[in-house]
Amino acid sequence: MLRRFAISCLLAGLAMTAGARTRPRYGGTLHVEIQGDAWQRPGGLARRLVLDGLTRVDADGTARPALAIEWKAENDDHRWQFRLRPGVHFTDGTPLSSIAVVGALNVDCAQNCPWTAVRAVGSSVVFTGDEPMPNLPELLSGDDYLIALTLTSEGKPPDGVVGTGAFQVSEFANGVLALAANENCWQGRPFLDGVEIRVHRSVRDQWLDLSVGRADLVEVPAEQLRQAQQQRLAILASPPVTLLALTIADAGALANPLLRESIALAVDRNALENVIFQRQGEVTASLLPAHMTGYSFLYPAERNLSKAQQLRGGITPPLLYLAAEGDGAMQLAAQRIALNLREAGFNVQVAAGGQRADMTLRRFGLECSEPAAALESLLRKAGMTAPGIGSAPESLFHAEHDALERHTMVPLIYLPVSYATGGHVRDLRLNADGTPDVADASLVDGSRGGGP
Predict the structure, then answer these.
(1) Mean pLDDT taken over the chain
(2) How far apart are CA 154 and CA 161, in angstroms?
(3) Which of 52, 138, 127, 44 is CA-nearest to residue 96?
(4) In the predicted model, is pLDDT for residue 13 greater than 70?
């Protein structure tokens, strides 16, 4: 009996020790390194740490309460009313109000908004539209509609970016953005004491710093994902959520839709995916990935050079310029596309920085897994109209078909978003758009983090 009791106590003690070892701890600073800017759109890492939206979306794309606790649609989705969460304050102490939300949305969305007008009504924010807005709750969770303070309680612009999120800006110096935990966050205090984001770091330098403990979280571009796996880095990878697409001007030299269709047919997607992105993507000729719709097979992704040449006919447009957002793999992909188009009879040159372009290779992030909202968001980011896309499969298909028929946006590849983490980082997950959910992360030893 005594022996059994001793064994039971020993097992219970081991279980408690193991639980304490894995239980999230408060404290420590997470050191992050990125190639770009922490505030860039889309996907700037600091934005979702400092700012909140009226809604958020679950993994299945369902809109959930955030700064708004409830909402309702009226007049066949032409009018929506969102009631704000009471007792929320910006990190400078300014109360969250409907007037503050409307001010932020008017700054963030000056044109091509999902709504026609937005106004403050008591503790609610009311959106009205000339067209139905069936996807508004999901759209408002997106990066473009996060709420930043525009005027303090004294009626003055704030000093820097001020939000209601889990962290607040404390300093930006020597290329490092320092964020401190928001002790009074409406969602509860985060486990980490702070996050330091070192910007404009090459991937090579990021990986080196991770290897020697100066960084806890670094980027892994899709084209280097296989190399990272070979180096046995601890990888966090999203599903394919970043669309690589070619946008084409429908004016000037490419006003003729046959020329734009010829360009779409001349691009060799498989070569881009195999050679440039090391088979880490999903070739696509549809705007939404296959797992979201089931009909992407209706849009052939194979190159058709003979038809491209036939559509171009005897038309010889002047010299065309092709630009690419970003550097590295994006520039290589642009050069490969330019070669494809020359083979189809176009005179194409890759544009230098800041030069006028007839075509641009761009990245578009999927912020939601609900197909109708995801498609509407994509089209709006591309500057296209997207009124009232319904969730029914036929409505979704017709909306995408109509957009693709213009050949002003040519989808090429869907890519994952990936990061590598240090061994002491715990409970770090990726949001629906591939950005790290740092607010719920912790360190094994809360008193330490990476860094010098």
Answers:
(1) 90
(2) 16
(3) 52
(4) no
Dihedral sign for Cα 239, 383, 162, 136, please: negative
Is residue 146 within 8 A of residue 47, CB to CB? The reply is yes
**Domain 242-415 CATH (choose: 3.40.50.1360, 3.40.50.150, 2.60.40.2340, 3.10.105.10):** 3.10.105.10
Could you say which architecture CATH assigns to the domain 52-145? Alpha-Beta Complex (3.90)
Structure tokens that stand for 255 in this block? 């006003």
Strands (E), 88-241: 117-121, 124-128, 167-173, 176-181, 194-198, 217-219, 234-237
> Closest Cα partner for 243 from 433, 393, 408, 406?
433
DSSP state of 96: P
Strands 359-365 and 320-324, bridge-based pairing: parallel
Per-domain boundaries in the chain: 29-37+166-238+417-443, 52-145, 242-415
Angle at the Cα of 38 from the Cα atoms of 36 and 43, rounded to 5 degrees: 80
**pLDDT (0 to 100) of residue 12:** 47
Residue 402 has pLDDT above 90, yes or no: yes
173: amino acid identity, one letter: A
Name the CA radius of gyration of the chain, rounded.
Answer: 24
Q: Is the CB of residue 82 less than 8 Å from the CB of residue 147? A: no
pLDDT at 447 over 80: no
CATH homologous superfamily, domain 29-37+166-238+417-443? Periplasmic binding protein-like II (3.40.190.10)
pTM for the whole thing? 0.89
Half-sphere exposure of 276 (CA within 13 A, CB side): 24
Quote the DSSP letter at residue 2: H
CB atoms within 10 A of CB 231: 12
Within 8 A by CB and 6+ apart from 181, the residues are 166, 167, 189, 190, 192, 193, 194
DSSP 302: S
Common-topology check for domains 29-37+166-238+417-443 and 52-145: no
pLDDT of residue 43: 81
Q: How far is 114 from 64, CA to CA, in rounded Å?
A: 19
**Cβ-based neighbours of 249, under 8 Å, separated by 6 or more:** 358, 359, 408
Q: Is the dihedral of CA 275, 276, 280, 284 positive or negative?
A: negative
Is there a contact between 104 and 148 (Cβ–Cβ < 8 Å)? yes
What is the distance between the alpha carbons of residues 308 and 269, in angstroms, rounded to a whole number?
Answer: 14
Listed in sequence order, the residues at least 6 apart from 68 whose beta carbon sits closer than 8 Å to its beta carbon are: 54, 55, 82, 83, 84, 85, 125, 140
